[in-house]
Amino acid sequence: MPAPRGGPAARICVAAGRSVIGGLPAPGAEPRRAARVWSGMMSAASTAPVASTSVLPGSRFVPIERFGAVMGLATLAHAWLLAHARYHAPWLIGALLAALALLLFVVLGLRTLWQWWRMPLRVRAEWAHPQSKPLVGTLWISLLLLPLLLAPANMLAARVLWGIGALGALAWAWHTLGSWLRGRHRLAHINAAWLIPVVGVLDIPLALPALRWLPALTPLAAFALLFGALFTPLVSALIFARMALGRALQPAQLAALLILAAPAAVASSVLRLVFPAWPMLALGVLLLAVFLLVLLLPQFARDSRAHDFEAAWWTLSFPLAATTVAAQLNTPWGGSAGLCLALLLLALTSAVVAALLLGSLRLYWRGSRAR
Asked: How far is it, in rounded angstroms, from Cα 340 to Cα 246?
């Protein structure tokens, strides 16, 4: 049989065919042997890696995790617009970041639809793999964050996007958590991206004040907070166990560690926006997010020195930007120290996003020259 062509799904199908042809017992053979063969086939399918940039005939596959760049840009744009309203920071920076986030979302959205049409097996393999399945949540989170930027200009469009994002985040969290409960996962499958479905549900209430849906949807915000309070410690414990007991992370996974700070940052913003009667709790949760950033950023800086730039490193932009927004919202309760923290985080996140943009342009330029 010739070597298989196509994506991982095609290779899995061919491998399964070889197993069926050469490995299945004849009718009436021992049932245990048949069970072992089928178990091996299922294990191979569940552990087959999903490469992030495999080249198919005439096209380049764009993984779903690229929506992480939209998350970071949209949240940083929101942070700059908040800074403009509170400290008279330049409005143009926030407006340009918002336009870039919207443009990138449209481009990635069209590309995702095209890939579903032209390479459905490859997309299904990505959406089903234990390591990349949680990253589908970046699409729904992007839909939940963009209404923060759209609401002042077009309330109807913002509400439609938010509705799609909220339903998608809830459905994908239900689907992903259910797949974990069914088992058949390995320690190597666990990575910090497993927190993304939890963060997606936590992001649901962020735009409610801008969409003028409070207090009608306050119970939904309470549900999101309780959901995050339940599942964040559980998933974080798995991630820390993976870090302590498993092999070193791949270069593309290094930045995802900062997602550990995202639930606390988002929860602090939700508490401040939807439940303003608990300012000290919101401030304490913000400090937890800052602590996690201080813990994880030096580790990323140390581990990433030995590797070339990865487009997947855009994942670190959202936790930084979300903590920046939370710091902006908690400034009235943090005093001068809170103001200094908010401005420091705004400068740091802006510098990191600028570095990510520069690295992405260099990566694109090298790829264009190689082709």
From this structure: 38
